[in-house]
Amino acid sequence: MTGDAEQAYHKVHVVSEASQQITQRVNDVATAIEEFSASIREISRNTSEVSDIANTAVNLTNSTNTTIAALETQSQEVWQYYASDRRDYTTNESFGIKCDD
């Protein structure tokens, strides 16, 4: 009977070690899954920030294009005004300033 008890003890010991190894591997997998999940959350957060930045850039670009178009229109109006005005703007008299020399 002693031999049977030793065999049973040995089998229980082997099963116990295998169980501990399985538990450790399950814990390792759980840790890896937590880290993977954290990485996914970080990627999601970064993607959201990039999207916000891109939307801001698009809005600023649209605003800048509107401003440039308005400035272009205004500069054309100024150019048309001065082109239709025949005064000589290279002298002070054209601005209504009289210089006594």
Strand share of the residues?
A: under 5%
Count of helices?
A: 1
Structural class: mainly alpha
Envelope shape: rod-shaped
Largest sheet: none
Helical amount among residues, as a percent range?
over 70%
Distance between the termini: 136 Å
User: Number of DSSP strands?
Assistant: 0
What number is the mean pLDDT? 87
Q: What's the helix-strand series?
A: H
Unreliable stretches covering 5 or more consecutive residues: none
Radius of gyration: 42 Å
Structure description:
- With 101 residues, the protein is an all-alpha fold.
- It has a domain at 18-72.
- The chain is built from one helix and no strands.
- It has one helix at 2-84.
- The termini are far apart.
- The model has no long low-confidence stretch (mean pLDDT 87).
What's this entry about, in short?
The protein is built from one helix and no strands.
Supply database-style keywords.
1 helix, 101 residues, mainly alpha, 0% strand
Which SSEs are present, and which pair or pack?
Elements: H1 2-84
